[in-house]
Each structure stands twice: as structure tokens, then as C-alpha cells.
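Researcher: Here's a chain I'd like modeled. Treat it as a single chain, no partners, no ligands.
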Amino acid sequence: MAKTLVIINPHAAGKRAKLIWETYEPLFRERFGDLIAVMTRTPNDVPPALETARAAGCERVFSIGGDGTNNAMVNALMKHNHAYPDAPPLAFGCIPAGTGRDWSRGVGTPLNVKLSIEWLASVRLRPVDVGMLTYDDRTTYFLNVSSSGISNDVVQRVERSPKESRLAFPLAILSSLLWYKPEPVQIYCDGTLWYEGTIYVTAICNGRYFGQGLHVAPHARIDDGTFEVIVAEGMPLLRVLPVVARLYRGTHLSHSKVHTTSAQHVRVISASGLPIGLDFDGEPGMARELTYRVLRHALLMYT
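Model: Modeled as a single isolated chain. C-alpha cells:
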């Protein structure tokens, strides 16, 4: 049986991820055999842990954390595997233990920890797509969804809330809606101007869910080499509230103020010249221009 590295983000799940590991370590060892466990303090701890794992003969890496942990893992794994082009790539799997857990929700991972470990032991290894985002002078990777507009404020409100609360995202969304003013953008898909106007949110989707269960991209697939691009355009507050409700059910795509397309390359440009808020897998940022590319089958995952 292949050796396995387990990365535990102790800040995930309201700082309960360490307890989750201590509780389920015996089950991990029963299902996956020889393990190396690393408790990270920051994302900067992940790359050296991957080096240690490769030197020890590990072939796969599992994480215990949320969508932010996934983001740190994917960025580290993409760079690590690129540094060893002639060696078998390290494969990745995740145990959902964060606030949103939206990647796991989209691929069908049970959100119960014990069941998710059993699920991880039974699923196949397959290549999945990874999103690459360049904004201003920075490039990063994302696994699930990157968005711009109101989502940046929502993410920051969630970061300030109790992480174990199931109401963290719904309350943050409602609070953000009360003050957010839709921003003007231009959106180019595969080189063609596709949308020009104000937005509440633009979502560039590899996965299907974001915002703790918003079913933003019901038709997205993680291995088809394309993004699903979703725009909710600017509209009065009383009209946007029903759209949010439909997002939870995944029935928003037929709304007249919601637009969708598929693309491999997307550019989002601030039409005002001012930075617009963005997030990638729940990590916030600001930029005047965002450029997205799909990297098809760039990562091996247990899904």
C-alpha cells in the first residue's frame, strides 16, 4: 500500500481539525496504511511537507480542512509536481472540515468526517481541471470557484464570524447585500466581449457550489476543460433577494438578470478603473483586471 501524507489545518472547523485528526487517526491508518502526519501553522508549511513526503516515498496527500485548505494544497501541489516533471505526480484527496466545504459538496464527498474517510478509501483516482488566475502582478491556482463583486465582502465577513456557525455565510450574504453597490465590468470569454454592465457577482466555476451551499453552476464539470461562467447583473435589492434564494436551489440560471456561458479563457476588467473585490476558493483579493485559464487534467485527485 502506498505511503500517505496527511496535512491537518488546525485552524479549520472552528479550530477543531486537530481533534478530528486525533479522533479518526486509527481509521485513517486502518484504511490507508503507513502515514506521515503534518500539522501546519500557515500555507507556507505545505511545500516543505510535500518535499518530506516525496523523499519518504509518499504517492498521495490528503488534507483535513476546508476550501481555503484546498486552495493552499492545490497551489503547493501544482508547483511541486511541476518541479518533478519526470516523477509520478503526488495525488490529492481531501476530508471536508471547514466552514463552506463547497468543493466536497460538489463532487459528492460526504460531509460527515467518518463517512468521508470511508468514501475516500473507495473512490477512484482521476485527473481534474485546475483554474489559473492572474490578477495584477500575481498568479494563483484555484480548484473550485473564483468570483468577483460582492463575494469579496461576503468572504471577509465570514472570516470575522464564528467559523463553526452554519449561519456564517447566509448572514454575511444578507449583510453584504445591504451596502454593496454593483460594479461596472467588461467580461471577455475566449477573446470575445460577452458581457458589459454592472454586476453583483461574476463566478468562474470549475466546481458547482460556493458560499456554503449556493448551487451556482449546476452544469459545471471538473474534468471537461471549460469553466462555467455565471453573472448576476446589477439590479434593485428587492429583485436580487429572490435570485439568492434560487441560487440555493440551483434554479437561478433561467432568471432574466442571470447570464451564463462556457469558456476556457476569461478576462474580467473593471470598467471604472478602480479595483474590484475578488475571491478564489474563499481567499479574498482586489484587482483591476482578472485573467482566467483552465488547465485541463492538471491534478490527480481522489473523487
